[in-house]
Amino acid sequence: MTRINSGIGRILTVAVAAVALALSMSSPASAGAQAANRVCAKVYVQGSGWTAEQCANAGQSVSVGAAGGGRAIEAVEMAVAGSSLCARGYRQGSGWGAEKCAASGTRITLGSAGTGLRLEAVTFGVQTGTICGNSYVQSVGWNPVWYCGVNGETNAIGTTGQNKRMEAVSFMICRSVENC
After folding, report:
1. Which residues contact 87 (CB under 8 A, 6 or more apart)?
2. How wide is the angle at C-alpha 61 spanned by C-alphas 180 and 67, nearest 5°?
3. 132: which of 13, 16, 105, 180 fits an S-S bond (Cβ 3.0–4.6 Å)?
4. Residues 30-56: tens digit of each pLDDT
């Protein structure tokens, strides 16, 4: 009887160890070791509401909003798969909000939907990999360059202190800054 129980105990110990290893490989902590590979975003456009969420895999860009439409973005909701994301928004009359960070696949909302206050700039970065962004700004248009955050560093799109609205934003996960 002792042999059978100890044999079952060893099998259970091995099974528990295998489950623990599988769980650790799918946990957010180990997911951070992988590079970002997908980005999703949607925006709240003043007077129109939320746009449909758009997603893109690495090497492709996702654009949301209405470039040239004359309406301000009030809020941005975004998520990145494959890495954690940190971002913050610069809101009309309030300045920079607190930085928000989320694990892979978890959405972050910046700004305040339905308040009539424009979101003028956004900072963003991923723990591992490269995320780049661009914005369409009132009376400026699309910026001629993409701004990138690499391996935990952040970068920003939009303007601050100029009282200009962002009308559209684009984000892209890149394999490297050179490939953005």
Report:
1. 78, 99, 100, 101, 108, 110, 122, 123, 124, 125, 154
2. 115
3. 180
4. 333 578 999 999 999 999 999 999 999
Amino acid code (one letter) for 6? S
Which amino acid is present at 149? G
With a threshold of 0.90, does the pTM exceed it?
no
Q: Assign residue 52 a region (left: φ > 0; alpha: ψ between -120 and 50; beta: otherwise).
A: beta
Distance from C-alpha of 150 to C-alpha of 161, rounded to nearest angstrom:
26
Other CB atoms within a 10 A radius of the CB of residue 112 amount to 17
pLDDT digits (tens, 9 = 90+) for 80-112: 999 999 999 999 999 999 999 999 999 999 999
